[in-house]
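Thought: the user wants the 3D structure for the chain below. I'll pass the sequence to the structure tool as-is, report back what it returns, then summarize two notable features.
Action: structure_tool
Action Input:
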Amino acid sequence: MPTPNKINPKLLTRLTTLLLMIGLLALQLFTSCPRHHFPKEWVSFCPILYLSCILLASLGFGVLGTFITSTVSLVLTSFTYFRAHMASPLGWIFVFASFSITLYFYLTRHEKELIQKRITLSNLEAEWNHLSKKYSKDKGVLRSYKNKIHHYHTLRQLGEKLINTLSLDETAKRILEIACQLIGKGDLATLFLLDDNLKTLTLLHEIDLAKEGPSFLIQPADPFNQWILNNRQNLLIEELKSDFRFEENAKKGLTSSLIEAALTTENKLIGALRLESREPHVFQLDDLRMLANLSNVASTSLKNAKLYSETLELSIKDGLTGLHVPTYFHQELQKAFLQAHKNHESLSVLMADIDNFKSINDRYGHTVGDGILKKISEVFHEVLEKNFIPSRYGGEEFSAFFPGWPREKTITLAENLRRKIQTISLEIRREILNVTVSMGISEIKPTDSNKDELIQRADQALYEAKRTGKNKVCYQ
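Observation:
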C-alpha cells in the first residue's frame, strides 16, 4: 500500500496562525460593535489572544512574518479600541504589552538568525579558503603535469626525428636544438663526443644562443668534461665562483652556471651534452633531470649515427693509406663535373704515380712498398684539403680534383706536393731510398661531355711526365 503523505509541521503552523488571525479579527469586530453592548472588559481581553498568534507566527514564519503578524495585531487592537470608544488605561496597557512582547520575539528571533548567518558565513569562508588553497595546489600540480607531458612529447618527437637520421652531424644538431627547446635557458649548447683513445671529449657541435657579447671558448683541457670523464655522473653548477670543485676555473672563462649530462650506452660513456650561461643560478636540479632524460634518448641515436659514420668512412677509405677509394672519387668528381658545367666554373684533376715502384717492390719486398705508400699518403693528407678528395686510385696511383681551380693554380699546388714527396727517404738494408712521383693535370673544357674525358687527359699528361724523365708535373 502506498504510504500516506506526511503534513509539513511548519506549513500546519502557518495555516493555524492565519485561521486564528481571521477568527480573532471576526471576534473583535463582533464584540467591539456598539449595537451589541458587550462589556468593555471583553473587548479589552481580546488583544491578549493575539499573543498566541504572535507565538505561532514566530514558530511558522521567519522574522519578517513575525513582525508583520505583530504589526497587524497592534493595528487591529487599536482599531477595535477606537471603534468601541474605549479610553481605559487597561486596554492601552494590553496594547503596550503586546507591542513589547512582539518586539522581544522579533529581536530574539532576529539575533538568532543573525548569529546563524554569521556562523554559516564563517563556515563558508573557511570552506572557501580550503577550496582556494586546494585549487592553487591542484593548479600547480596540473601545471607541473602539463609541463612534463610537454617535455615527454618533445622527447618523443626527438626520438621520431632521430630514427630517420643517420648523419652524425645532423643527429648532433637535432639533439642540441631539442635541448635548447626543452630547457629554454642558457647562452651556449654544446655536444661532445668521446674520441677513439677514450681520454678526452671533443667538440662535435655547438649552438650559440647569446644574441650579443663575447663568444664562449672551450678550453683544451676542459675541467667540466674532465669531471664527467672521472665521475661518469651528471653535473650541475649553480654558481661557478662558489663551487669548491672548480674554484681555479672560476675566472678563466665566461661560464657562471651550467648543466652537463653524460651520454652513456650499455654503461659506457660516449659523450656529453651541456648547456651553460654567463649568469649564475640560471639552472636548477629539474633542468638537469630533464637534460638527463634527453641524454638517455639521444645516446642510442648518437651511437648509431657514430657507427654509421665509421662504417661509411671505412667503405670510402682505403685501409692501408686512409685515402679515399676510387668509387668514392668517381662519385664526387661526377658531382663536381656537373656543377662546373652548370655554373661555367673551373675544375682540375690531378693524377700521380710513384716512379719505379715495381722495381722497389721486386727488390725490397711488398712491406717496403706498403711503407712508401703510407708515407706518400701522409703528404697527401697534409697538403690537400678534404674537399679535394685525395684518393688512392690504383696500386701506386693517386688522384684528386680541385673545384673552381684553374690549371695554373693546380700546377703550383702539384709542384709543392711533388717537392714534399721528393724529400721522403727511407733507410733499407743500410741503403737510403728516395721516392719521387710523376703527375699529370687536366682542366675541364666546354666540349667535355663527361668526367671520364677529364680523367683520360690527366692520365695522358701523367704518361707524358713518365716518358720525359719522371719526377715532374705535366699538363695535357
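Final Answer: Structure generated. The longest helix spans residues 89-163. The longest strand covers residues 268-277.
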